[in-house]
Each structure stands twice: as C-alpha cells, then as structure tokens.
C-alpha cells in the first residue's frame, strides 16, 4: 500500500512547505535533538500532562508521547479545510435544531426516522427546547485524515465532549520553548488565543438578558482521564472549575457555592456525558451531575455547552448522512468528503462486510477512543471471527470502512527518524453568529510501526501542527 508522506513527495523530494524545516533538521546534530526530546519529556512530567490508560493497565496514568517533528500545513490547504469544517459544523447544528423541532429532514426521508429517534443519544426531553443561537455543538472536534494521493477525508465528528485541545496548546508552547529559532524562520499561525476565543463563544451563548455571564467548567473530577484538560482550560479562561457538588438548583436557576454565598451560573462548559448530568432526569445513580439542572436548562436559565442531546449527531450510524445534511440544509455540495461507509444494519452492506472482514475497519456506532473496533489487516483470525459473531448478533451496532492508507510523517522513534501514520483534530467553535477556529489542531500520531490507531489511549502520541501564514 502506498502512503502519502507529508514531508516528501513520491520521488523523495522535499515538499515546498517543508523545505525550511528539513534544511534545519539536516543541519542540526542528532545529539541536540535527543537532548531536546528529553527536556520536553521532563517538562511535560512536571506540568502533569498525562492521560489515563484503560484496558489491561486500567487506573494507570502515563505521559502522552510528544514528537518534535511538526506536522506542517500550507496556507492554501488550510483555507480549504477551514471552509469544509465551517460548512460541516453549520449543517450539523442545523440538523440538531431540526430533529428537536420540526424534523423536516426526517419527513423528507433523507435520514430514516428510526435511525434518529431510536438512537441511544437522542434525548426526547430536548424536543421543543430553544437553545441560544440555535447552537447545540459550541465546540466540535472534527477528525480529519489524508489518504490516497493526498485527499482529505472526515473520519468522524466529535460533538459531545471533544478533548485534546490542551495538548494542542501545550505542544505549541513546548516547541516554541525548545526551538525558538524555528519560529523566527517560519511564519507559523498562532494558536495560543484559543482559550480567549472559547470564552468569547461561551459568553456569547448566555441566556437572554444576561450581559455579564458567569461561566464555569464542569468536570467529573480528578479521576477523569481528561482532568488535566478541564483544569487547564478553566485556568486559561480565568473561570471556575467546578464539580457537580459545587452547584445547586433553586427556582430553576443554577447557583455555585462560594465562600461569599451562592453565585448564579449562566453558562456551563460541561465535560460530563448526558447520562450523568442530572440524576433526576437521567441516571438516578449519578453522583457527578446536578439535581434539577435539566429543568433550569429547559426554562432557558442556563446554557449547557455542548447541549444535551448533541451526541446523536456524532454517532457513527449518523455519520454517513452528514453529506446529505449539507445538501439538505445549505443546498451546497460537501467540501470535505466522508470516508465510504458500510452500514451493517443494511442486509447487502452486512453481507459485503462479512465477506471482507480482513480488509476493513469495523467500528461500534457508539464507540470512541479506538475501543470496540477491528482493524482487519492488523487482526488475527481469532479477532476477525470474534467480530464476525458480534456483527451477526447485532449488525445495527456497527459500521465498516475501507482501511485507509493514512498519510505519514517523519517521526522520532527509538530507531531514529521513521514515517508514522497520523490524523488531525481541529477544534471548531460556534456561537450562532459565526463559526471560528484557530489555525491548526491536535495532530495525533501512531508511534507503533505500521499501526493506524492514533488514539492516546491506544499508545499514540502528538505533534505540534503548524499552519503557515504565507
């Protein structure tokens, strides 16, 4: 399989946008690079940038490996990606508004109604609720891969509680600290203003009539795998980091307990899933949420970001319909393509998938983080047969996609510099008035040779992402 290399063309020549960096890399002694790598590891340990590990080593936390070869994107390429992501997130928000109001797309038969209304992430309690600005997904993480001859594809949309932006910001800070001379040579677009942009977007969706809103970040607590990010973003935005027990509801209004007495809360950037948000409305055994918060939300007295019920739009069973949403709501051709997808609930698709398991990637429709999936070409016969039984037993629970020839980029590994596969997660912010993003995103890299799974929880690392301004 031929893979598109981000730095080198098919003839081994250096791509134009990498020439400055490659010349620096060639002229830099390997010992200096190794010293800087060790310095980065030490600094990340000190800051506490870790990620909880699940599965075999459950309960452990480890450092997310950081690679010092940046992923560089030329300005023209980024502008096209940016247009595509704006279009996509705008359509997804219109879809969410529609399915919780008039359901025009379902009446038009563009998406089977049962796929939406029977979806585990669809929240009937949100029907008819008018959210500020019509925005459900204020923060979206759009996973983009490059394959084939260099075409970009959207692999999935993350609209519930997309994570990883803190690593994007810390990676940039680290690269600027280690190699300031590189930023003097290259016009790299800044990303450090992301927290300011996020706070501005959150304040913009405050309940009607609130001119100076109080914003908080709601975390499940210190044992959550992304707790570093929750505390980091609260600190960077200058807002309070709270847990469910720090909040209470009175007269359908949310308050925060403070040493000066109760303080009204207007906007909550939540990092807790729907099911755990309100024990009176969802899971009664949840100790993470706030009793009565759903009623305050339905009354329009507090904004939740992202909205309850947003998850239906990032479910993998809905993903294949996003191009149809773009055409239906915007009357435009999709700028960014989906990966071709087989819906196993369809008889013909299932038959094809079962006949080609060794060639395909199979994913659980509700799965995340690289779990609950089969990468056919990298799997054993036993693993393939296990998935065959799962698919036959519950075909509607899975989709399948071709194994993409993900692009690769030179990466520092134990044996030196070698190509490793990667993806990109830009973070798209919406307030209703506009859709914005900082130029760049989180580049995740599969550090295991030949691996196509880039998730941090599965052993992946991260790179700084440079969008060039010239």
Question: Overview of this structure, please?
Answer:
- The chain has 470 residues and is of the alpha+beta class.
- The protein is globular, with a radius of gyration of 22 Å.
- The longest helix has 25 residues, at 75-99.
- A hairpin with an 8-residue loop joins strand 15 (360-364) and strand 16.
- It has one domain (16-467).
- Helices cover 30% and strands 23% of the residues.
Describe this structure in a few short sentences:
InterPro entries: ATP-dep_Glu-Cys_Ligase-2, CP_ATPgrasp_2, UCP005522. By secondary structure, the protein is of the alpha+beta class.
Secondary-structure blueprint:
Layout: H1 19-27, H2 30-47, E1 50-52, E2 61-63, E3 66-73, H3 75-99, H4 104-107, H5 113-117, E4 139-147, E5 151-158, H6 165-178, H7 180-185, H8 194-204, E6 215-218, H9 227-237, E7 240-242, E8 247-250, E9 253-256, E10 263-264, E11 267-270, H10 293-298, E12 303-305, H11 322-330, E13 337-338, E14 342-343, H12 347-355, E15 360-364, E16 373-375, H13 381-393, E17 398-402, E18 408-413, E19 416-425, E20 427-430, E21 435-437, E22 442-445, E23 461-467
Parallel strand pairs: 3-23, 5-13, 6-7, 6-11, 11-12
Antiparallel strand pairs: 1-2, 4-5, 4-20, 8-9, 9-10, 14-17, 15-16, 15-17, 18-19, 19-22, 20-21, 22-23
Helix pairs in contact: 3-11
């Amino acid at each position: 399989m031929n893979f598109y290399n981000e730095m080198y063309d098919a003839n081994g020549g250096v791509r134009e946008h990498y020439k400055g960096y490659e010349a620096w890399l060639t002229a830099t002694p390997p010992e200096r690079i190794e010293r800087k790598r060790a310095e980065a590891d030490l600094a990340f340990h000190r800051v506490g940038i870790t990620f909880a590990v699940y599965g075999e080593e459950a309960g452990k936390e480890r450092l997310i490996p950081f690679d010092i070869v940046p992923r560089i994107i030329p300005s023209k390429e980024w502008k096209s990606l940016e247009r595509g992501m704006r279009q996509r997130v705008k359509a997804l928000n219109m879809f969410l508004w529609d399915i919780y109001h008039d359901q025009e797309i379902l009446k038009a038969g563009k998406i089977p109604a049962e796929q939406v209304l029977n979806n585990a992430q669809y929240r009937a309690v949100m029907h008819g609720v008018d959210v500020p600005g019509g925005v459900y997904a204020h923060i979206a993480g759009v996973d983009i891969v490059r394959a084939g001859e260099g075409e970009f594809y959207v692999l999935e949309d993350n609209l519930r509680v997309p994570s990883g932006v803190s690593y994007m910001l810390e990676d940039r800070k680290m690269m600027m600290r280690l190699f300031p001379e590189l930023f003097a040579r290259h016009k790299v677009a800044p990303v450090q203003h992301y927290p300011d942009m996020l706070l501005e977007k959150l304040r913009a969706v405050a309940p009607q009539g609130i001119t100076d809103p109080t914003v908080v970040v709601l975390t499940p607590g210190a044992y959550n795998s992304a707790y570093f990010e929750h505390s980091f973003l609260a600190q960077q935005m200058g807002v309070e980091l709270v847990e469910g027990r720090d909040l209470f509801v009175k007269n359908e209004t949310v308050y925060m307990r403070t040493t000066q007495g109760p303080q009204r809360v207007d906007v909550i950037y939540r990092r807790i899933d729907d099911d755990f948000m309100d024990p009176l409305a969802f899971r009664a055994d949840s100790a993470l949420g706030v009793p009565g918060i759903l009623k305050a939300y339905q009354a329009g007295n507090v904004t939740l970001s992202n909205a309850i019920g947003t998850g239906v739009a990032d479910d993998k069973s809905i993903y294949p319909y996003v191009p149809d949403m773009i055409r239906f709501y915007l009357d435009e051709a999709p700028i960014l393509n989906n990966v071709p997808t087989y819906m196993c609930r369809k008889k013909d698709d299932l038959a094809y998938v079962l006949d080609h398991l060794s060639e395909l990637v199979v994913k659980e429709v509700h799965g995340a983080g690289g779990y609950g999936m089969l990468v056919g070409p990298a799997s054993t016969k036993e693993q393939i047969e296990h998935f065959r039984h799962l698919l036959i037993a519950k075909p509607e629970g899975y989709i399948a996609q071709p194994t993409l020839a993900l692009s690769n980029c030179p990466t520092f590994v134990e044996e030196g510099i070698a190509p490793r596969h990667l993806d990109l997660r830009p973070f798209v912010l919406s307030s209703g008035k506009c859709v914005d993003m900082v130029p760049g995103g989180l580049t995740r890299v599969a550090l295991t040779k030949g691996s196509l799974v880039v998730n941090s929880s599965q052993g992946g690392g991260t790179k700084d992402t440079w969008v060039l301004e010239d």
